[in-house]
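dumping the sequnces here before i forget
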Amino acid sequence: MSTAVALLGPQRAMRVVERNARAYLRMWAPLVTGFFEPVFYLFSIGIGVGALVGDLPGPDGRPISYELFVAPAMLATSAMNGAVIDTTFGFFFKFKYAKTFDGMLASPLGVPDVVRGEVAWALLRGLLYSGVFLLTMAAIGLVQSGWAVLALPAAGLIGFAFAGAGMGCASFMRSYVDFSYIQLAIVPLFLFSATFFPLSQYPAALGWAVRLSPLYQGVALERALILGDPSPVLLVHAIYLAVMGWFGLRVAGRRLGALLQP
Amino acid sequence: MSDRVAVADASPPTAAPRSAFDTLAAAVPMLRVAEREARVWRRFWRSSALTLVLMPLMFLGAMGLGLGGLVDENTGPVEGVDYLAFVAPGILAASAMQGAAGQSLWPVMGGMKWLRTFHGAAATPLRPGDVFGGWVLWIGAREAMNATIFVAVAAALGAVPSPWGVLAVPAASLTGLAFAAPMSAYSAVQDSDLGFPVIMRVAILPLFLFSGTFFPVDQLPDWLQPVAWISPLWHGVELCRGATTGTLGLAAAGHVAYLAAFIAVGCWFGVRNFASRLAP
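..and the predicted 3d for all of it:
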């Protein structure tokens, strides 16, 4: 019996994923265009400004081109973006205006199913973006190591971390005005997580703050995998991301249990 | 609150002294629409100040200071100035574009369809053209405010080598208007906002990244350079960069004319579209 329940749980959450997939089939343009952002940044900053930056020291001391430095960071960013869009803006719209969750809860789905399903969907969206981005990188010759096969699972982990955290935050939102704060968190993460320039460019104290940033964990993870420089430290980054996602999910689960259940 | 007290005290109301703004607004009715937006803004300015003022400054810090250090070590001056001074006017003009674009999509749909505040305005003696004009005017004013703060901070960081940099404020506002007028005209006649994120991602973002903002346009592949010249943002960036680096020349007149043409065409469509949507 208990195994049957355990099997049923995830299946129910998959219904939520299915619902989102069907909804997005009808409005595919916002879904598809989300993928362009990191690509545009790769071409503009990575290749355009990269021509001005020249080479940077790589993991083993050999110089690497600037676009090779930026591309893994954009991969991590695309995983973050995909996950955050759906769990914050999308989630809040469904929660407050479209009343999608009320509809879901009127079915046999429970709050945990809804939370799991929404996070699974956000994670899939993040994986979709990072998967296509990884292919783009490979196509223009920016993937040079066999360790890169782990880059996609790593992107999944980044997506999970930000989906959990995003949903945890979204459960505290009162109105769209509060979304300024989400943007106010995402943009500095995007700009200051050793994405566009290495830690050595920061003042020492700030460098340590950057090392604690959640996106930095993802950037460091992807960069090491893409450039072929694995080390045990990567496990620390991975655990950080896993705990972040798990904690966000717990908070979201509790909050939404109280907010949604009659 | 104080407004209400003032109205209650004035008896008869016509005896209340007319302010200079009242006199001006009697001649230019669209100012009333801009005034309405300014009054709303006064209540919400904190959150908008956070995003619209801090975002460009964060980009300036990351690209100008962080990445700029690497550029200065490797290539030295870009178009005659260090990278911080090169990128600051680019970010200024690009932010004016992004701010104006954001204000010309969802809020216009809000005024026309969701909240119908434009219909409310059109129910007064204001004409649809006044509603459009006041709306766009307010966007231009806001971009000028944001630009003032940006230029002041950039100057404090040493990113504005020339005193002509004060002209970057009107230049940024003009850049914003060149997007606000045509885009507000477009949004006024849309039935859904589904296309808006697509516009932001496939039009505004590439303009932001490839209009000479972060690197000179002549670094683009040859076939892409003419595309950049068509971009109104490139003209705005050149204008702002000419001001902050003190290299404004005859070309500036051409840039102003190009942006003015976008504003003029946008206004023509805007007045027409607002009139068709707000017709009684």
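Chain A touches chain B at residues 27, 29-30, 33-34, 36-37, 40-41, 43-45, 48-49, 51-54, 56, 66, 177, 180-181, 183-184, 187-188, 191-192, 196-197, 201-202 (CB under 8 Å).
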